Structures are given as structure tokens and as C-alpha cells.
Amino acid sequence: MIISQNKPFEEVLAFLENSEKIIIVGCSECATVCKVGGETEVQEMKEMLEEEGKKVLGTTILSPACNLLNSRKDMKQFKEELKETDAILSLACGDGTQTVAKVAKPEVYPGSDTMFIGEIERIGQFEEACKACGECELGWTAAICPITKCAKGLVNGPCGGAKDKKCEVSNDNDCAWLLIYDKLKDLGKLENMMSMREPKNFEKGNAPRRINLRNQEKETANA
Amino acid sequence: MSLLKDVLERGEFGVTAEMAPPKGTDLSHLLECARAIKGRVHGVNVTDFQSAVLRVTSLVTCKLLKDEGLEPILQVTGRDRNRIAIQGELLGASVFGIENALGLTGDHTVVGDHPQAKPVFDLDSVGILQAATTLMSGKDMVGIELQGTPTFYLGACVTPRFDPMEAQILKMEKKIKAGAKFFQTQAIYDLDTMREFIEKTKHLDTKILAGIIPLKSAGMAKFMNNNVPGVFVPDELIERMKNTPKEERVEEGIKMAGELIRQLREEGLCDGVHIMAIGAEENVPRILDAAGL
């Protein structure tokens, strides 16, 4: 899931300094789970902006905001409002906000900061799990990601910085490589850790990346 | 040929010292210390933005020390450079006649003085050693032939008291496979740590220089016990520091370091020592005097 957090309200207000009439959009998926851009938060934002003297012309929850065709369709409900609105405030993630900006003419501002791809540990508790590096390493690391869970993204084992099995970057973080070591040991696969890893190929992570399944299928068919 | 390599491979007791470049352009203190050390050590490590703190670069400082007649050991971390910069740095060092290089992962940027910086870590310590070994074969990491091939005596570091030790030794083995010929250890203060470490690594064909950091006070010892991974200062040494009058503590630390080196040598627990005087490099000759070296 994409984990996001609300921006400080003062920052949002600064974006909207010269905007009187505003439309607020949220997202039904990740931003709702993160309690950043669901029904409740969109409603709260509306009230806060109205208290600041803004006029909220409409609110909606896109489902999900990152679906271009869907967002284009959903935004049509504001056909009239969009003609007079000064700005759209998006409480979706950075991806959703950009999608909205593609389908709507007025300026779109983010009301949240997109943090990471993570796991829902329990309600309201998230932990980063994947860096979307383009070449998954989990197959030899007992399914613990060294690229994400090690602050240095090391591929050959722990650095000397761990103390009491915690990372030098923060006492809150377990040393990922010691987790990998323990688990591989349990699994009887410590040889995975002994194998020399060539430096990781970061070429696969160069942004922006694109995938086109249709083209891929065509290529497969032609092959 | 590298003096350090020559000494260690002949089986003589090797001595290296660590020097940190200054934060600023005034190298007078560094050069003063260098002149004091000259002729007493077989190599001088020059730290690479040690503790992720901005300083003069290791390469420039290595060159200046070389010009002073010392044998520099270039430290290269993966924190600040990608594989292009690391290979370039190594080639540059070779052009300057620097024959020793030490590959380190490096402390994370957040523990240094510019925590806002983007950390790199394109290569880890093993990757840096692999890169250096590849360059020494006459090619770069993508297989393109070099015009002129560098030669290095490659080293790495190891923490003798890491928990779990097996994970550290596993990585040490990888560093050897990647080209490390010698290791400098994290600071040690007791013989037992070294005895245990030597026992656990006796299957490895490498040279080990025991890390020595002279104590300056009991507070420093306690700080290291609490904050520096893998460092253990026994209580008796802390007590000894406490019982020494304040103005004599530095001298006592030097004496203690000398004693430890003497014992390590007598028991054959290492192939040499690596002295990290942390800003007081002028004391290195006195430590060596105390050790009878």
C-alpha cells in the first residue's frame, strides 16, 4: 500500500492563499486506510477551509484516484463547478494527485505527503517494506528486503554499525541483515548469505518507469 | 611495492596509524603529526569523511602525506560515491602512487554533520573491494579495458566483538574473496576478545592488525562501551583511569595502549596493530615507545 500523511494545515493554506473557491478530492483506497484522504478527512478539510473563509464548491472520493480513466469520469460530476473553481485540493497520494491534475484544468495542490510503500501492521500503524527497486531480492534473503529494511541497502551482509542488533540509523530499527541472518539460519540456508553478490543493477530502477502489458503481449505473440 | 604489504608478508609486526583530514583548509597540524610519525609506522590510514562528517578528502590528504614520505592507505567508503566515482577515485589514487586502499561501507549520513544529505551506498564494502580487484585486472566493472592498470594492497575492517560473531566472520570471508589481504579491527582493550577472534578466524588466510584507541578518561571508556558498536572496555581499565590524577590520564592511556600492544605481540594474537589516536596523532610515537616498537 502507498502510505501517506497529511501536510501541516498551514502549508495547505499557503498553497491556497490566492484561491477562493475550492474542490476537495480524496481517494477510496490507500489514502482512506491511512486516514489522510477518506470521507472523514475530506469532510474535516472542508470545514477547516470554510473556517478560513474559503468556499468549497464540492468534494468527492475518487475510487481510486490513481486510475486515469476512472478519475476522468468521476471528475465530470463537477462539470459546472470546475469552470469557476480556483483550485483543487487533493488528499490522495502523490500519484493520485498527479492523475487528478491530468484530468482537471484548475491548479491541483497536494494536501498530503506520500511517504512509502508499506505494510499495514495494524490499524494506523505502517512500516516501509518495499523500495520498488525493479529487481526483487527477496528470493535469497528469506523474504526480508535488504534494499528497504537495511538503511544502507547493503547486499552482502551487515555493516559494523549494528549495536544490540539495532541499526546505527535508529534504535527503533532492527538490523535487517541480522534478521536475514537469523531467518536464513533457521531455514538452514545460511549459504545464501555466504554467496558473493555482485553490485546491484540499479538501472532497472531509473525513473520514470513504464509497463505496457498490451505491448508485452504483442511482443510475446510475435516472438 | 607497498611497504605495508612487504612488511606484513615478510611476517614482521606491522604498524599503521589513522589520521583524519582537517575540517577546513589548514593542514599544518596534520603535517606536524605526520612528521612525528614518519619512520615509525608502515602505513597511515586516511579516513574518508569519518563518521559521515565533512572534511578534506582522503585522496588529497593521502597525496600530501605521500609527498611527506609516508605510506598512505586510502580509505574509500560507499556512502558518498557511486561505482563510477569509486573507480575514478581508485584510479586517481594510483596515478598519485598510492598503493594501499581500504574498502568500507561507511557510516550512514544521518550520524554525521550533514544528516540532510542523500546517502549513496551504490557499493558496499565487498563491492568496493570487488571494484578495486577488477581494476587491478586491467578492466573496469563493465569490462572495458583500462589504459594503465592500478595495483593496490587491499584492506578492510572487522569488528572482533560483533553480535552475532558468525555474521561478521561470514562477511569477513566475503571481503577476503573480494580481494582484502589485511584487516584492521575495531578498537580492542582486552586480550580475551582477540584470543577468541583469532580462534574463530584461524581458517582464514589474511593479516590482522588489532585496533588500538588509547583511552583519555574513564568517561571516554564508558561512552565507547555504550555507544560504539563492538567495543568493550573492561571495568578494570576504567577503574585504573578513574584512579589516575586528571592531568596524568592521557599519559596513563598511552601506557595502557603500549602494554596491550606488547601483550598482543608476545602472545602472537595479531600480525600488527592499527593505532587510532583520534585527533591526538602526535601521541602515536609515545604509544610505540611504550610498546617497545
TrEMBL record, chain A:
Pfam families assigned to the protein according to its UniProt record, in alphabetical order: DUF5981
Residues of the Methylene-tetrahydrofolate reductase C-terminal-like domain: 109-202
Taxonomy, superkingdom: Bacteria
InterPro entries: DUF5981
Protein name, UniProt field: Methylene-tetrahydrofolate reductase C-terminal-like domain-containing protein
TrEMBL record, chain B:
Gene3D superfamilies: 3.20.20.220
Cofactor section: FAD
Entry-linked CDD domains: MTHFR
CC per GO annotation: cytosol
Native species: Alkaliphilus metalliredigens (strain QYMF)
Catalytic activity: (6S)-5-methyl-5,6,7,8-tetrahydrofolate + NAD(+) = (6R)-5,10-methylene-5,6,7,8-tetrahydrofolate + NADH + H(+)
Classification lineage: Bacteria, Bacillati, Bacillota, Clostridia, Peptostreptococcales
Protein name: Methylenetetrahydrofolate reductase
Family: Belongs to the methylenetetrahydrofolate reductase family.
GO BP: methionine biosynthetic process; tetrahydrofolate interconversion
